[in-house]
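Reopening: structure tokens for the 5-hydroxymethyl-3,4-dihydroxypiperidine complex, inputs below.
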Amino acid sequence: MIEFPKEFLWGAATSAYQVEGNNMFSDWWEWEKRISLKHLSGLACRHYEFYAQDFDLAKGLNHNCHRLSIEWARVEPEEGKFSGEELEHYRRVILALKERGLRPIVTLHHFTNPIWFAKIGAWRNRKADKYFLRYVEKVVNILAGEVPFWVTINEPNVYAYHSYLLGLWPPQGKSFFRARQVTHNLVNAHIQAYHLIRDIYKKNNLSYPKISIAQNMQAFIPRLPSLANKIAVYLKHKFYNLEFIEKLIAHQAIDFIGMNYYSPSWVGKGGSKDDPSVLRKNSMGWDIYPQGLYDLLMGLKNYNLPVFILENGICTDNDALRWDYIKEHLESLSRAMQNGVKILGYVYWSLLDNFEWDKGFGPRFGLVEVDYHTYQRTIRESARKFSEVCLTNKL
Ligand code: IFM
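Re-run output (same inputs, fresh job):
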């Protein structure tokens, strides 16, 4: 039996655009329609209306924290014009979490932008950080004191690659230079937001919250252990997984390492003794490799910062596999803890089935199933098993 520390944080995550519905001032909304995406986000899970019921479910599942994001485009639908009503909505949302004993982990940017910001070049604009900071200031002024964990930017590496290098997400850029420029601007925006958030807490005599990003990390594995493959693995790990985090550490603008882990990534040519074809897969074809979580966590030990798993999850129609996935990743996590890695908590992606970006509503990541015709929620068996771990701190 594995035991986790008493103060360990357990929860699940969502992001505004993927669950709220009707985010019509966001760049994704406009883009989905323009390119005629097969499945439009539309009403998503109607979480904007049903957040209280959804938090009841999380509480009933013994979660003690919850991660969500604020939709910038709702709060600032037109440049410089902030919506008091939407700010008040998010204040109610955060209070609803707290009333249920769920500690809020709040993300300020999770892939989507206001349309007006997209029109001026979004994160390529030289003043992107200034626009972002103005929004951050409004939100944090309203929520300071209620939020113990802030995540400024979700998966900056995924965002930069998908939107500016691979051409998959709006604005469908395909330029290495642009992806680097955006990464640079995101780093700057985070550093300033970090200090701004702390200043606001200080001004209000509040103890400092913990601030980070949620960094997507992949376990890079060489197909054959050749020197060339090992060098490629080293470089990918350095630039994809660590670069952003290291810059924030160098600027002392990070309190913990927020980590999102899903799967490994095979590097180089040739066969492998861990042949990817023998690994189990999620419904989008990503390999399942819990050892990768352990390896990555051990690699973070030298930074001397606590780690918070802010996303780990599986899309599958096989709920027994979902539980195996959770259990095996928790085993890896516990092994890393026994070997000296300090871990604050584990947040499963996602509380609800939701809009999986360009893949639409097909992939089912939820602990809770969503019927997209009736919007009825049904708790999955894996959620109940996970809830036992959350209650007892034992696996
Ligand atoms: O759904 C996404 C989420 O928005 C960011 N992290 C990965 C998840 C699964 O692809």
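The domain at 9-392 is CATH 3.20.20.80 (TIM Barrel). The longest strand covers residues 210-222. Marking as resolved unless the reporter disagrees.
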